[in-house]
Every structure is written in C-alpha cells, then in structure tokens.
C-alpha cells in the first residue's frame, strides 16, 4: 500500500474531523523556554483547549551545562545557562510537542550531534540541519541557520572544539541541505530562522522600514534575507512559512504565479535563482582564510537569558537588551497579535481566506504562501501566534487565526493528547539517496544530475518501504499500535552530556576558562536514525572513506508508546 496520504484518507479526515490541529508558532527563543510555555498555557486557558504542537523558529539555545557555552555564538556577556538544562535533566517537562530548528545563536555542538534530527529533551524535537516530519497529517519541514554566501557552498568541515571562525560558520546554511529539501514532493509548513530573500516586498514594506529603518538599504537593493530560501519557497510552495531572526513581526502573502505579484510600490524584478546544478563556488577554499564579521549575525540584538538560581526556580522578569521596539500590531495580554481595527485593512490570513475557493481542487502545492515572521521572546515584542489548521474535502490545508474565548476554565494536563510524530517517508528516501554527497570537508562535491538524483530517490523509496516495515501499513492513524514511521519507535531521548552540577548553580559567576568545552559525542539517536535508513554513521565519528549506503539495516524493535512522540 502507498506510504503517502491518499485523497480518500484525507477526505475521511475532513468528514470526521480527525485532523484539526491547533498550532502555536514562536520566533526567537533565546533560551526562554519557561516564558514561552507560560504564554502558550495562558492562551490554552483562554481558549479552553489544548494546542497540539509548538514551532520554535531558532535561537533556541539548547545549553545542557556550562561546558556547552563554549559552543554558543554570542558575546561573552550573554553566555548564560538559561532554562533549557532543566528540561534536559528532567527537572521540568515540555507540556506539549515542540518542534525546533536552529538559528545563529545556538549551542551548536549539541545540535550537530543531532544533525539528522532528534529529541533535545523529552517532548522537544529538533528537525536537524534540514528535516521533514509528519505531525498528524501536517507535513512540516525545517531548515536551520542563516545564509552567508562564503559558507553556502562548503561542506560540514567544522570540528570541536570550535575556533572563532568555526563558531560562526557552523550555523551557516549549506547548499547540500537546501537542495535536499527542494526534492520534497510537498510541505504544508516550512520553518526557517532566516527570511526568504525579498519576501518583505510581498507585505507592508513601508511599515517594516518604519519599524526597522536600518533594513532600508537592504530592502532597496533586494539583499535582505536568504536567496536559497526564496528558491526553496518557490519550489515547495507551502501553505505557511514561519521565520524569525530579524526581531520584528511581519506577515506577507507570496503568490506563486507567472506575474510575480508583489505588494504595491515594490519592484517586479527578483534576484537570480539558485540552480540545483549550480557549480560549487570558489568560496569553498581554505575556511581559515575567511574572517567572519561578528556583527553580521546581529549579536548586538541579543537578549540575555534569565539565570535560574536553583533547579526549582521559575523564570522571572526578562531584561531586554535589544532595541525595545513595539510590535507592528497591538498585542493582547498573552503576547499574541490582535488584528488592527482599520477600515479596509487585512491580515495575511484574511487575504488568503478571501482569495481561496473552498470548492475547487488545486495543485498539491498551493498557489500562494502565507509568510509570518515573529520577534524575540521578550514581552515588548510579538513573539507568539496561534493558528487552527484543517483540510477541506480536496485535501487542501486551510489556516485560520485562533481566537481566544473569555473563559478561564482549568484544563487538566492529564487529558492532553499528543499528535502522532512520524518520519516523512519521502524525506527518508532523499536522505538515503544523497548520503554519498554528504561532505565533512571544506569543499562540497557537486551534486549529481537531475536524472541521476531521480533514479537514486526511486531506488531509495523502494529500499525504505522494504526495510522499514512499511509494506502493508495503513495510511491513517494507528490507534493502539505503533506505526512503522513513528519517531518514538526509532529515537528515544538519551542524555549524552551531564547536567550542571548543583554547586555550579549556586555560583554567581563562573570562569569558563576553567571549564573545558564539551567533547564531540556520538548521539544514540543519530546512530539509530542512520541504522534505520541504512547509511553509515559519520557525525562525530572518525572519518574513514566516503559516505556509504548499507545494503542491510537492523530495524529497531517496536518499543512501548511514549508521550514524547
């Protein structure tokens, strides 16, 4: 049986209301998990309903202990432990399924351990440097990092402990990851930290300039954002694209048509496209010869995370070291956007609803994409937004703003149901097919031709279906049993580095020079994933020859159900 969601199954989901998922989206986390979850739970109390999944769009800062701070790309004065370690150590638990991508202020050593994705902590799943999963019937893709041209064409050459240059380049997006994501048949939601290049031309551009006047020159020259992400946007045509990074709320509607429609007053010409067969740039020369400007990555807009004094302390007031901006739209008491009451004005979601025909069948990829960027996790910015998602009878995904009620009824956390979290089968095939081109050197080898890639993916699809027990599985939910692609069946959270010792938490200030950096660690989740898709493990292991595909793979045993998945 097909491993993809069939139109018949999607129709049944629509009729019986199986997949009406409530999604929360957050911008830059900056280590403030406690505050983020506090705001989400407050919104749930208002709506008298649970959200199914929370999407965090980068600058997550998964710092397990003080040794990880050596791998955090922030100025020294902002190198603080934050609150993530408490979720990692089991002191606290994420209340809902949380999907994470990386930004440009991360504990890059831990995220590199999970290059293909994995549990950062119970209920907190990292999509990897590039990744795609199914949450219920939603296909959610993610790309970590930000764009820098001089690193885009390189391999993953950085090694721990990171030197000053490696500390920056490790989170720069690579062509290899973008090109793999472009091979996906479709994606409903895409998460990125960086913005797609010129996306600001498709919304209220002048309002953005008023809020962030220092963007004006980049907007004028069409250099704001990432050209590869624009290419990915135009290829995947998702329903929703979520970003962060620039510390401002901004929404837009990108129309996927030949006219190249933009907001009034914007230019018609766009940047040159990134070709799948692009030649590897000469910029992939000796990386040590590149001097990376610290200010390019917005270090001057960092927010210092709150430093808990003990394992049981809750997060207190958040001090904003940024620009103290006000959001573009009013914000309610839980930090979410409220549509402005201006005659004739519309939000991006309202424009989508007004232009879509509910009764018409459309291509698998939508004709327009709603883009949403959110700010950083401080009370002065709009950093959270909430959506209801539902498919119509044709399988098309519909978005609507989640509207809070005025009730204050208490919700029982024990009644929360976690949606299914599964590997996306086409993505597994792509990972396997292009594994031989994973470069851990400075030079990224040129990718194969389009025809060769297609043939390899076809072969990989067959291998995945045969070797991951997919034959005969149903398309729909598997109540009471484990599905072959359930993430929790293959990957279970395993701590690989110790949490901070109690005595270090009692110290007001630590001298990091006396604490060695975390050594390279092989994460069991990465090993399990590689085994699952039949590729050799190369992350944080001695490099011996080129990447290899394995003919046989030992499929892990089915494990008891866990709420983490």
TrEMBL record:
Residue ranges constituting the Lariat debranching enzyme C-terminal domain according to the UniProt record: 356-539
SMART domains xref list: DBR1 (SM01124)
Signal peptide range: 1-20
UniProt cross-references to CDD domains, sorted A to Z: MPP_Dbr1_N (cd00844)
Compartments it resides in: Nucleus
One term under GO cellular component: nucleus
Protein name: Lariat debranching enzyme
The species this protein was found in: Tilletia horrida
């Amino acid at each position: 049986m097909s491993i993809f969601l069939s139109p018949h199954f999607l129709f049944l989901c629509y009729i019986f209301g199986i997949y009406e998922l409530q999604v929360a989206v957050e911008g830059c986390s900056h280590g403030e998990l406690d505050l983020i979850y506090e705001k989400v739970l407050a919104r749930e109390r208002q709506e008298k309903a649970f959200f199914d999944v929370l999407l965090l769009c980068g600058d997550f800062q998964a710092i397990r202990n003080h040794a990880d701070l050596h791998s955090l790309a922030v100025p020294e004065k902002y190198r603080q432990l934050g609150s993530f370690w408490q979720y990692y150590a089991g002191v606290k638990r994420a209340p809902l399924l949380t999907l994470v991508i990386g930004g440009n202020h991360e504990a890059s050593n831990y995220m590199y351990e999970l290059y293909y994705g994995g549990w950062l902590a119970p209920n907190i799943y990292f999509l990897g440097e590039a990744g795609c999963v199914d949450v219920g019937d939603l296909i959610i893709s993610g790309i970590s990092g930000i764009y820098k041209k001089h690193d885009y064409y390189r391999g993953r050459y950085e090694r721990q402990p990171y030197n000053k240059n490696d500390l920056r380049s490790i989170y720069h997006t690579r062509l290899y990851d973008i090109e793999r994501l472009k091979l996906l048949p479709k994606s409903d939601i895409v998460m990125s930290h960086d913005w797609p290049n010129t996306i600001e031309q498709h919304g209220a551009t002048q309002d953005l300039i008023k809020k962030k006047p220092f963007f004006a020159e980049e907007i004028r020259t069409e250099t704001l954002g990432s050209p590869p992400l624009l290419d990915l946007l135009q290829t995947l045509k998702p329903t929703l694209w979520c970003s962060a990074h620039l510390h401002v709320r901004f929404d837009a509607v990108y129309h996927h048509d030949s006219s190249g429609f933009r907001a009034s007053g914007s230019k018609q010409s766009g940047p040159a496209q990134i070709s799948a067969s692009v030649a590897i740039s000469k910029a992939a020369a000796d990386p040590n010869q590149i001097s990376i400007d610290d200010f390019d990555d917005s270090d001057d807009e960092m927010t210092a995370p709150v430093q808990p004094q003990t394992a049981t302390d809750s997060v207190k007031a958040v001090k904003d070291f940024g620009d103290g901006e006000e959001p573009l739209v009013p914000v309610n008491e839980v930090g979410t956007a409220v549509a402005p009451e201006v005659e004739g004005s519309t939000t991006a979601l309202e424009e989508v609803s007004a232009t879509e025909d509910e009764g018409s069948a459309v291509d698998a990829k939508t004709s327009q994409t709603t883009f949403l960027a959110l700010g950083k996790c401080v009370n002065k910015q709009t950093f959270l937004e909430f959506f209801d998602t539902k498919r119509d009878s044709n399988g098309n995904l519909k978005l609507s703003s989640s509207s809070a009620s005025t009730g204050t009824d208490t919700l029982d956390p024990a009644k929360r149901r976690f949606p299914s979290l599964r590997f996306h089968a086409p993505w597994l095939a792509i990972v396997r097919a292009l594994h031989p081109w994973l470069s851990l050197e400075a030079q990224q080898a040129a990718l194969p031709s389009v025809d060769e890639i297609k043939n390899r993916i076809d072969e990989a699809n067959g291998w995945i279906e045969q070797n991951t027990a997919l034959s005969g599985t149903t398309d729909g939910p598997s109540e009471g049993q484990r599905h072959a692609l359930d993430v929790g069946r293959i990957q279970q959270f395993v701590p690989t580095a110790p949490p901070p010792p109690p005595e270090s938490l009692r110290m007001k200030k630590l001298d990091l020079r006396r604490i060695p950096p975390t050594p390279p660690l092989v994460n069991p989740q990465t090993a399990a994933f590689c085994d699952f898709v039949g590729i050799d493990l190369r992350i944080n292991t001695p490099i011996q020859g080129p990447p290899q595909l394995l003919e046989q793979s030992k499929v892990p045993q089915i494990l008891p159900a866990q709420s983490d998945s």
